[in-house]
Amino acid sequence: MKRILIIGNSCNGNIESFQRTFLTKDSILLWVLKDYKRKYIKYSNMRDDGEFSKKEYIEFRNTTQINNLLFKE
User: Fold this and answer.
1) Is the pLDDT assigned to residue 5 strictly greater than 60?
2) Which pTM was predicted?
3) With 37 labelled, which of 31, 48, 55, 73 sits at a CA distance of 20 to 30 A?
């Protein structure tokens, strides 16, 4: 957030700004609002229809589940 607020350089000389990060057609915020739900439904249907029947499918619903998987001893 700091680089966004002060328009700072990030990796490889890229410049981040609030406008570029949140208000352009390529912004992550726009992607979430526009595409996330549609893609979530698409992949859920693929899983439920058996398209991934030979694959292990793990869905995390919160950070506790992620931490349990990554840091279990």
Assistant:
1) no
2) 0.47
3) 55
